[in-house]
Amino acid sequence: MNSTGDSNNPAGKAFFGRRKGKPLRARQARNLDELLPQLTLDPATPSPANLSQLFDSPVTRFRMEIGFGGGEHLIHRVQENPDTGFIGVEPFINSMAKLLGQIEGQGIGNIRLYDDDAAEILDWLPGASLDHIDLLYPDPWPKRKHWKRRFVSQKNLERFHRVLKPGALFCFASDIETYVNWTLLHCRRHGGFCWTARSADDWRTPYDNWPGTRYEAKAKREGRQTAYLTFRKI
Hints:
Elements: H1 26-34, H2 36-39, E1 61-66, H3 72-80, E2 84-89, H4 93-106, E3 111-114, H5 118-124, E4 130-136, H6 154-163, E5 164-174, H7 177-190, E6 193-195, H8 200-204, H9 214-221, E7 227-233
Parallel strand pairs: 1-2, 1-4, 2-3, 4-5
Antiparallel strand pairs: 5-7, 6-7
Helix pairs in contact: 1-4
Protein name: tRNA (guanine-N(7)-)-methyltransferase
EC number: 2.1.1.33
Enzyme class: transferase
C-alpha cells in the first residue's frame, strides 16, 4: 500500500482505509487477475503526451473519479459519455472487482483504472489534461484527530489544479457537514478554484443526470442531506 504525505498528512498515511472486505467470487478473482492488468495505469511508466493514447476507443475529453465505491456513478457517466475517456481510482478490492464485472459484461472501452493512491496518478498525469474530477462521498474521517487524512488538502488541491484544464470542473459531494465546510474552506484558501453556486439550490440539487449512489441512499435513510459542490479552475 503506497501512501501520500503532505502538510495535512505528516505521518504519510494513506487517505483510504481497509483494502479488502468479504471473499471474492471466482469470476471476480479472475477479473482482478486477468482484466485489471489490461486496464490499469502504471505511474512507473512515462505519462502520455495526449491522454487519448490510453484508450482503445476514440475519446476527446477526459474525466477522473476518485474513490468510485460501488461504481454506480462511474458506469452511468461512462455509458452516457462515450466520447470521454474515464479514469476510475479505487483502492478497495471488492469495489474494483464489482466494477470489472460490469466492464466485462458491457464491453466498455472508454475507461482505465488504478487500484491504489489517487495522488500517484495525479502526479503522473500531464498538466492541463483533465476536463473533470469527481470526488463523491469520500471517506469523511469523522474524528477530528483523523481529519488530516481527508483527501481534500492543499497538496491535493494543488494536484487537481495542475492536471485540470483551464475552466475544468472539480465536483465534490458529501453528506458530512464538517467535510463540506472543510472543502469549501480549503478551496477558498487555495485560491485556484471558484465555487460556482449562486444560491442554496445550486448545492442542494444533485448534478445533472445524477444516478444516485448507495452512499447517498444510506445518507437519506439516516436523515442526512447531501451537498453537491462544483468548483471551476481559475
